[in-house]
């Protein structure tokens, strides 16, 4: 409880981690606010069904609050957004100047606010992919402020968890993106870093996973614990193994 987990991918697609955490927290009986900026609801629902979770049913019973970023952006830009009185669009910053992510934070805060009828075990904020906000025009400071307020509200006040996916690619020289990614790394309790193989594509080894447990955040003088595995993504699960020890090699 109260942990901030950063999912980071470089030269590969780390979305399988998002699907894992989404199904994991829903099965655990947690209240989940999912800010999905990368894919449609039907995409996440199809993958979740393979993992044994029904997102539509979770939405209907109030366990899952889903923000479909792609649809909201189009509705807002083309003037089709149906605003409720006193409730602006979570992505209102697209039509404002200067950019302000306060409406998005208010959406998260209201979505995870406890009610008397709630019987969920704990609140969870899941974001896929945070760096999309930079592509939509938000400044790095606005994005980092948004995450800071979410951490204070969800992790500190509600004792819940936050899981955020960010995409990084040092080769692109995107300074704003790298600033956000590096800043989040310094504040994370756990970093799961998926990387593509330096040697290129391999059908039996899809990538490398670096697991960084930030022990230095908890105790001064402690070294972070780093574990490195390679992995292969299958239809319904992911197989992890030590580097160079895949079944194909052995």
Automatic annotation (TrEMBL):
Keywords: Cytoplasm, Nucleus, tRNA processing. One of its GO terms (cellular component) is elongator holoenzyme complex. InterPro entries: ELP6 (IPR018627), P-loop_NTPase (IPR027417). Transmembrane segments: none annotated. Pathway: tRNA modification; 5-methoxycarbonylmethyl-2-thiouridine-tRNA biosynthesis. The keyword rRNA-binding does not apply. Its main location: cytoplasm. GO terms for biological process: tRNA wobble uridine modification. It comes from the Eukaryota. It is found in: Cytoplasm; Nucleus. The keyword Zinc does not apply. Belongs to the ELP6 family. This is Elongator complex protein 6. It comes from Campylorhamphus procurvoides. The gene is Elp6.
């Amino acid at each position: 409880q109260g942990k901030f987990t950063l999912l980071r991918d470089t030269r590969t697609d780390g979305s399988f981690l998002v699907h894992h955490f989404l199904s994991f927290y829903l099965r655990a009986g947690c209240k989940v606010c999912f800010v999905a900026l990368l894919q449609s609801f039907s995409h996440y629902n199809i993958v979740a069904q393979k993992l044994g979770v029904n997102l539509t049913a979770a939405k209907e019973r109030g366990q899952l609050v889903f923000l479909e970023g792609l649809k909201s952006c189009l509705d807002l830009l083309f003037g089709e957004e149906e605003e409720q009185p006193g409730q602006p669009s979570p992505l209102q910053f697209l039509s404002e100047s200067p950019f302000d992510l306060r409406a998005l934070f208010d959406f998260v805060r209201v979505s995870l606010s406890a009610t008397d009828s709630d019987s969920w075990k704990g609140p969870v904020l899941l974001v896929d992919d945070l760096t999309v906000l930079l592509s939509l025009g938000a400044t790095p400071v606005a994005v980092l402020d948004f995450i800071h307020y979410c951490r204070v509200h969800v992790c500190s006040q509600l004792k819940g968890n936050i899981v955020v996916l960010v995409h990084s690619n040092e080769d692109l020289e995107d300074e704003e993106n790298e600033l956000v990614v590096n800043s989040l790394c310094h504040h994370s309790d756990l970093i799961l870093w998926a990387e593509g193989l330096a040697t290129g594509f391999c059908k039996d080894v899809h990538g490398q996973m670096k697991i960084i447990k930030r022990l230095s955040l908890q105790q001064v003088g402690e070294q972070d614990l780093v574990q490195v595995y390679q992995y292969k993504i299958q239809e319904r699960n992911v197989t992890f193994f030590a580097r160079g020890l895949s079944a194909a090699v052995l």
